[in-house]
Amino acid sequence: MGARKRNTANARKEAKKKMAFAKLNNCPTSPRKMRLIADLIRGMDVEKALAELKLNPKEASGRMEKLLLSALANWEAKNEGKRMDEGSLYVSEVRVDGGRMLKRIQPAPQGRAHRIRKRSNHVTLVVDSRNSDNN
């Protein structure tokens, strides 16, 4: 590995240590459905986002709410002594990537077969403080 690549990798690792995030891998919901929920809460305050997710009837919102609570717990662990109320937290980044796909076969007329793709996704949720002095 070259020196420039090593330096940028080390800088990325240091930035990740200060960041409070949570990941959900292989969630058995299609990425398109999960992105609808992610777009709802991106950039929102944490309290508002939790209320929005709790009242949303979609199935993916329950998983996203649990992930947001996990990210909040990670933020409190990184910033000892501070509570999320005084941090003025917001959802700074939500990334939904496609995960592994289960491929199944469904019988079709005239001896044919149709392929069924059961999609899953990976979600990364980052929580940050609006105040820059906490970082």
Give the fraction of residues assigned to helices.
Answer: 40-55%
Largest sheet: 3 strands, antiparallel
In CATH, the topology is named Ribosomal Protein L22, Chain A
Point out poorly predicted stretches.
Answer: none
Count, helices = 4
Give an overview in words.
With 135 residues, this protein is an alpha+beta fold. It has a single domain, classed as Ribosomal protein L22/L17 (Ribosomal Protein L22, Chain A), CATH 3.90.470.10. The chain has 4 helices and 5 strands. The strands form 2 sheets. Strands 1-5-2 form a 3-stranded antiparallel β-sheet, with helices on both faces. Strand 3 and strand 4 form a beta hairpin. It is flat and about 65 Å long.
Topology:
Elements: H1 3-18, E1 20-27, H2 31-41, H3 46-55, H4 59-78, E2 89-98, E3 102-107, E4 113-118, E5 121-129
Antiparallel strand pairs: 1-5, 2-5, 3-4
Task: Fill in the keyword field for this structure.
135 residues; Ribosomal Protein L22, Chain A; 4 helices; alpha+beta; 5 strands
